[in-house]
# Entry
Amino acid sequence: NDAVQQKTEDYGKYESGNKLAFSDLQKYLDTTYPSLSIDFYRDILPQIKKIMTDTFRAVYPIIDPNKRLNTFEIYGYDFMIDSAFRVYLIEVNTNPCTCLLYTSPSPRDATLSRMPSSA
# Structure
């Protein structure tokens, strides 16, 4: 969890904000495991997409019981990858921190500030 991690002395030691772009993860895989030929887009991303799809299917009937139109919600997914490159879901956040990904204000903050208070 970013709110907890940012208080540690190693926070940001290896990558800014302890977040890694897909392309940077691919470079890490290519450098660290060259003989395995792990391709993020072929081997890891499909697992992430399946997990995300499964979570939405599991809660779809209760996620918006009033079937409101013209609305959206941002979710934050935290994953872990094991030594066999299997992906596991750690948690889903209904109010993810996006502030570290962008300069201030974040696109999320800018969008929310333009929304009417009655939305």
Summary: The radius of gyration is 17 Å. DSSP finds four helices and two strands in the chain.
